[in-house]
Amino acid sequence: MTMTATNRGILALIVGIAIFSVQDVILKQLSGDYPLHQAMLLRSLTALPFHVAIVWWFDGRLSTITTPGWGKMLARGLLNFTAYTCYYLGLAYMPMADTVALFFTSPLFITLAAALFFKERVSLISACAVALGFAGVLLIVRPGTGGVEIAALLPILGALGYALSMVIARPMGRTETAAAMSFWGNICFLLCAFALSLVFGFGQFEGATHPSIAFLTRGWAMPTRTDFLLMSGCGVISAIGITLLTYAYRIAPSSKVAPFEYSFMFWGVLWGWMFWGNLPDALGWIGISVIIGAGLLVIRAPQTKKAAPEGAA
Questions:
Q1: What's the 3-state SS for 93-123?
Q2: Contact 130, 295 (CB under 8 A)
Q3: Confidence class of residue 144 from pLDDT cuts 50, 70 and 90?
Q4: Whole-angstrom Cα distance, residue 70 to residue 64?
Q5: What is the Cβ-side half-sphere exposure of residue 102, based on CA atoms within 13 angstroms?
């Protein structure tokens, strides 16, 4: 039986999300021995030729990466790098399921950012979903129960940065291709990882005991052959994952495939349990469920029109 384009898109996204989840496992596993910037640098170098191939495959030419908008794409890449750095630093300390759940508050931030920057009216359903989602965050972070662990704020900051990068991508997408934006995003990851390596790579800031801080400030270490292959493999994983997600959103309506991004939660729980023996407690499960439910409400809510500009009749 022939699959419809929508079903192919959903399948591609689910497979892409599953592949991406392996990268998180690798980085969390390596976070106790190597710095994030070392892993990011090797990952970005490995991914570079794949991103060139992705541009050629999806755009049919390489000139899309040299348009006048390359600077804006690079700036968006900086926002994405900051977002994922926060996420991975949080992942070094927190259980994988909780970190993933907090990062998936991004649809809530996207709704807020669209209202602020594009003057979009937020429907009552979306407004309630945003409030509900942040209630789920409180169930996971639990302020007032011995203080808020700073690492719990990192994936939330990552979600905010990711949301802003998605909002920026909306007008940018009118003139730039998704493959070109991914290419410049990888270039930015490469440059930023190199800059962090110059600052921290010589080990002069080592000694932090907190896993998240140590993952940032630790100096470079000579990797074993296995660890080197794992770091480099993240580049292949990233390139394949991005290709599948780009393909999914290219052939199927976003409203149909976007909800399946939450399949990442399944892998977050499964890998956290298999590799580190971590499972959310009762309140954690409730918080995760609330965040997922709120995100799905936002994604499935009817799109709203832009509000009239100030001063308009």
A1: CCCHHHHHHHHCCHHHHHHHHHHHHCCECCC
A2: no
A3: low
A4: 9
A5: 30
Q: State how far Cα 165 lies from the chain centre.
A: 10
Coil, helix or strand for 306? strand
Angle between helices 5-30 and 264-276 (to 10 degrees): 30
Q: Which of 148, 175, 162 is nearest to 94 (CA)?
A: 148
> What percentage of the chain reaches a pLDDT higher than 70?
94
The mean of the pLDDT values for the chain is 89
Q: What is the dihedral of CA 64, 65, 71, 77, to 10 degrees?
A: 120
- 12 has a pLDDT exceeding 60: yes
- Which amino acid makes up residue 279? L
Span 143-153, mean pLDDT? 69
Can you read off the two tokens belonging to residue 307? 């509000």
Residue type, 65: I
CB neighbour list of residue 70: distance below 8 Å, 6 or more residues apart: 180, 184
The whole-angstrom separation of Cα 39 and Cα 150 is 23
For 94, the token pair is 């927190």
* Helical spans, DSSP H, in the chain: 5-30, 36-59, 70-91, 96-103, 106-117, 124-141, 150-172, 178-200, 211-217, 225-251, 254-257, 264-276, 282-300
- How far apart CA 38 and CA 242 sit, in angstroms, is 21
- Asked if residue 294 lies in contact with residue 119, where contact means CB atoms within 8 angstroms, the answer is no
Q: What is the pTM of this model?
A: 0.90
Q: Please give the C-alpha separations between residue 247 and each of 1, 173, 262, 277, in angstroms, as whole numbers.
A: 21, 15, 18, 34
- Tokens 């990268």 map to which residue? 23
Q: Which residues pair with 306 in a beta bridge?
A: 120
Among residues 279, 266, 292, the alpha carbon closest in space to that of 20 is found at 266
Amino acid at position 201, single letter: G
